[in-house]
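Request: Give me one sample?
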Amino acid sequence: MRAAQLAVFNDDLWHLWLDLHIMLGLIRQLPEEGVRRARLIRCGSEAIDIYGENTANISATRERLAVELKQPATKSDLNTVAIGHAHLDTAWLWPVREGKRKAERTFASQCALLEQYPDYLFGASQPHQYEYVRDRKPELYGRVKNWVKEGRWEPLGGMYVEADCNLISGESMVRQLLYGKRFFLDEFGIDVKHLWLPDVFGYSAALPQILRRAGIEYFVTTKISWNQFNEFPHKTFVWRGIDGSEVLVHFPPENNYNSMLDADYLIPGRDTFPEKDRVDVFLSSYGVGDGGGGPKAENVEYGRRMADLEGAPKVRFGKVADFFNELEAYRDKLERWNGELYLELHRGTLTTQARTKRGNRKLEYRLQAVEMLYTMLPLDAYPADQLRTAWKTLLINQFHDILPGSSITETYRVTLEEYASIHATCAELETAALAKLGTEGTNAITLFNPLSERFAGAIELPNEMNAVSVIDHSGIVVPSQQIAGKTWIHVDLPPLSLTTLKLIEGEAQASNTLDTLVLENDLIRYEFNHDGQLIHAVDRVTGWNAIPPDESGNRLLLFADRPNDWDAWDIDQFYETNLLGEAKCISIESLGSGAVGSGLRLIFEWKNSRIEQDIFLFNSSPELRFVTRVDWHENHCMLRVNFPVNVISDRAAFDIQYGHVYRPTHRNTSWDSARFESAGHRYADLSDNDRGAALLNDCKYGYGVHDNVISLNLLRSPSYPDPDADRGEHDFTYSFYPHPKDLIRSDVIETAARLNQPPLVFPGVQATENRMPFQLAGEGLALTTVKRSEDGGEWILRVVETRGCHSNAILSSTNPNDLLFETDLIERPIGDANAATISFSMKPFEIRTFAVR
């Protein structure tokens, strides 16, 4: 520091400035021809004359202003419940470690403001940040706890962090709420009933049910007001999800989570509030945000001045919980919105930072598989602390500026390191579990199928097990084959079980060389051209060709990708007219055929980048799998793969959390056109009543389906805020899957599950236990999660209906002394203890959770 200046703060002059700020805001916002505005202008002019640039006249000046600033609001004007808030991005233009320090500073400054203003109320979300302050600044955290106890500090939200809601799995949504809500319950005794996600880039249609089953009835966001083309018609409404569950939603009509709580924010909010004809109150979230901070003293002063002011809504400091209690009285007067809350913006976040998205998907499934593995052991052997730590690390990285790809380089360096650490934890836990569930067996390999249906398909053995033959427990030889230097075997594994295979002398069958561009089995025949494009996909039973005449699939297309704004965030629709070209196929090599399947290796180039694909058709399935490696070195370029389907349908199905949604394939309206890029998890399916095809993937999310073409966004290359985003090496898999019948009557959902959750492979282990102690029976049902309860005394089982149909379930424990009872997602009992086997019905897309004691 070279110099410093000292100043004397003139409190009277500051209050005069606050008065003038409010008056000028009224003048700017009120109708030009109105009486109120004219009198405010005259009052202000006279006050300036009184002041005369002499601070001795401050009191007289304020007295003149008070004549107008004390005029009361009209009886019919709206009420505003104002909650102080500091929107604090866990990471964005700073890494997570700095987000934690921002939380310290924000909490400290807000404690000071609460001391200064006895009527002030503050709310903060994200238990992750509370945990950090608790562990690093216990004295500060003690002050926070006191303010919560006094009712002046409100815990907001319910999720562990303000997580993305397009990309994370259904189970991740559950864990966000489980760890978030339980933290507030354990620390403060408060059961938060609302979800606070003001800045997330769209909201899945699965969310209402997950919220309701976690004890959350209300939802606050502002982000949908950012829509690019269509103004969302409601600010206060009832939102209905895919299963029929409903939550009451409020969008603060200022369209901002960083309001200043003055006339320039509140009056436009009031005037544009669509429900003002029937609802008397709206919410204002005010304070400096994005990097934390929260309200300053002047914001509180603004609110005080606008408590009862003619021409403005009537402000009172209040809690979000109390606001929703008040809003409940209007529920029956509100409109309903069915399905997803799609944000017409930030569509690029479905693709940017592909390595992070891949890491998240892989870990979501691996952590669930490890949890299931430990259900074969006693409760007290369950590694609760390690798994909880791993889950929380994953959840932090699901923050809405990390997983979507809109943070800085350093953030992603740390994220990938943390992913590697979680994988290492999983490997250690798997080894420890198998040491108890089996014995060493040099000539053995054990497979764990975490799916609640049989896994019948091909798996790749570890590198150290190349060139081996395999038999099952009955001594029957398991089909095996050498493909591209790897040993593949075809297995048929029972659900939720361990299966041990034995290695014997001999080698896997060598692949027979193919001299054509045809891959075929008893079910289907695929043919490629010399450009690496798929030109035929003919069902060998019906003769139907899934690829339309004169069209081709597996088209690797490159587009210029320069959105108007928000580089990492956005894809603009005009990219479709900016096709740069198609990746050039420079090599086609046969991988041969044999007892497991057949394959081709294709190599493509585009400018500075190289794409290698091993394409497999296994003998037991029509799935055509594209195992893809990309060395990507482009700038502002987008790589997509397109598959036309020989089907006419006005809608396509997209996999989402615990279900699927249908979206139009046409662009009849501006609402349809705006959805040119949408979220899909494991598949998008285009079918008519008789047949169709799905495009599956193992780590991608950005789909576009227009007319009869399914397009999957593979890679982008923005330069802000991370100039290195996505450059480098990538591994991913997608599959083309023609099928008879429509989605619901096909096995697309099961095939997508097998692609994403293949068996865990444990070389050198002979299992002595082979079945999980819990079994589920029922059409279209999945036992997606089995874990120990957070309290430690029960097993928790999650059952999901996956097809959107009614079904009957039988859930059982192998221990006849066990008792099953239903819980909510926070693992609180909602039903009486029953027998070791229970039968129950499942509604379409229903999620039900049970405890086993």
Remarks:
- Residues 409-437 form the longest helix (29 residues).
- DSSP finds 16 helices and 44 strands in the chain.
